[in-house]
Amino acid sequence: MASFFGEVLPVISRAVEDEESDDEFINPEFIWKPSDDSGSKQFSPNWLVMAVGAVPAGFLQCHMELTNSLGNIVEINDSKEKTIIGFYSSTCGKVIYCISSTYILPDKLWCLVQKVFEVVHCGENTRVCLLDADTVYNYHTHSIAKLSLPFLRHLKTSKHPDVPDIDALSQPNMAKGLTAAVMSYCQLNKIAAALYICYTETVLPDAATLLAFSKLTGEEPFKTSKVPKEESLSRIKLYLQSPANNQTLYI
Amino acid sequence: MSRYDRAITVFSPDGHLFQVEYAQEAVKKGSTAVGVRGNNIVVLGVEKKSVAKLQEERTVRKICTMDDHVCMAFAGLTADARIIVNKARIECQSHRLTVEDPVTIEYITRYIATVKQRYTQSNGRRPFGLSALIMGFDYDGTPNLYQTDPSGTYHAWKANAIGRSAKTVREFLEEHYNADIAASDEETVKLAVKALLEVVQSGSKSMEIAIMKRNQPLKMLEVDEVEKMVTEIEKQKQEEAEKKQKKAKGSAT
């Protein structure tokens, strides 16, 4: 293309034929793989606790009795299976814990959420508790210097009772990812649900961040299933020594 | 913000050097280190990093000597720490050869800070993602504790902390440090241990304490010495808590 000043500019022609897009959305395939003991029945717990991310998952593994593995939701991709969410039940059987440390693409979230609620039936009295974590640098506030880390913020559905001890997540901060999708589902289906987001200095698990949710351990559903303090400390030590968490970049 | 945070040599319109600020965030990813200066002793305490099963523990060190009378604890990028320590060690020996005197703590701190600052003003480089606590005794017997950060600034401190949860530890030190503690060697060491216990979850096994007294080389405290101190401190805390409870009951009745 020649410009007004006589120079020739490279311009891509807009006169092209629209080809059919090859990127058609294909419904992701999530299947429920029960463990040997649980079978393929639907679960109807009093509490559903979902931990999404390394820090909430580490918190549950170090502080809670996750005795019985119920199964996993796996994603089938090119005949390969990838575990997305692991399901565990508490000793009393009234609480189901879901742990997910994998990043899930936004366009797959809704299918995954529907799969979760196919496996777990939430009745009128079922409560959902979601745990998520983020770095404090993604938290928008005027006075970040006044905040002592880590700190919790909550969001709840309209059916959930008030959460008095923990501040609500204020605008313009937002919940994202799987926990946000589950909250939306719960709000639409009138399920009592609360999401607790912990803002920490770092999203990599360390001893301090693994204690980040300890404010919740005095309440249900964590009160009945938590392990003694000495055992949780030794579990934290083991968890941090695992190869996935042992990185040598920082000292 | 993204237009001004890629090149170290570019200021943002509101005067930030984002790469330097990001380097300071890298420091917070390192484990905690605390330094306390007494009248006759200087103490460095660090949170020991968990070591992989097949890893040689002696090669994972957060406290390094730079000369017989100077040592340093650091927090941040491991590789950057090794470069700075090597440069500082060479400078310490070069100074001895040139002027036939050991470096003062201020001199070597200034040297390290100058190196760091140079890296904040050069194209094609990035700042060191490292903060350091440098302690030791000058030849006149004065104890010193200095802190440097990625921007290249340095200051002298009576007590300070760097790394993860440094703010919590610093607040503890501000509350508890006083002239009486500085006058006693034992209390100075105890203060460093207490400050670390604020953030280290698994007690004495996750700490390393180094002390330096006048005209003596650096001494790393043995594990059982640290454990004994931690037990004493926890006993004291319990006694104080019981006293408070009794007082509260007494005033209630």
Automatic annotation (TrEMBL), chain A:
GO cellular component labels: endoplasmic reticulum; proteasome complex
UniProt-listed Pfam families: PAC1
Protein name per its UniProtKB record: Proteasome assembly chaperone 1
UniProt keyword annotation of Glycosyltransferase present: no
InterPro entries: Proteasome_assmbl_chp_1
Lineage: Eukaryota, Metazoa, Chordata, Tunicata, Ascidiacea
Record key words, sorted: Chaperone, Proteasome
GO BP of this protein: proteasome core complex assembly
Keyword Cell cycle part of the UniProt annotation: no
UniProtKB/TrEMBL annotation, chain B:
GO-annotated cellular components: cytosol; nucleus; proteasome core complex, alpha-subunit complex
Subcellular locations according to the entry: Cytoplasm; Nucleus
Pfam families (UniProt xref): Proteasome (PF00227), Proteasome_A_N (PF10584)
Residue ranges occupied by any Proteasome alpha-type subunits domain in the UniProt entry: 4-26
Chief subcellular location: cytoplasm
GO BP, sorted A to Z: ubiquitin-dependent protein catabolic process
Listed InterPro entries: Ntn_hydrolases_N, Proteasome_alpha, Proteasome_alpha-type, Proteasome_asu_N, Proteasome_sua/b
Keyword RNA-binding: no
Key words of the record: Cytoplasm, Nucleus, Proteasome
Subunit structure: The 26S proteasome consists of a 20S proteasome core and two 19S regulatory subunits.
Entry similarity comment: Belongs to the peptidase T1A family.
PANTHER family per the UniProt record, alphabetical: PROTEASOME SUBUNIT ALPHA/BETA (PTHR11599)
Protein's name according to its UniProt entry: Proteasome subunit alpha type
Name of the gene encoding the protein in the UniProt record: Psma7
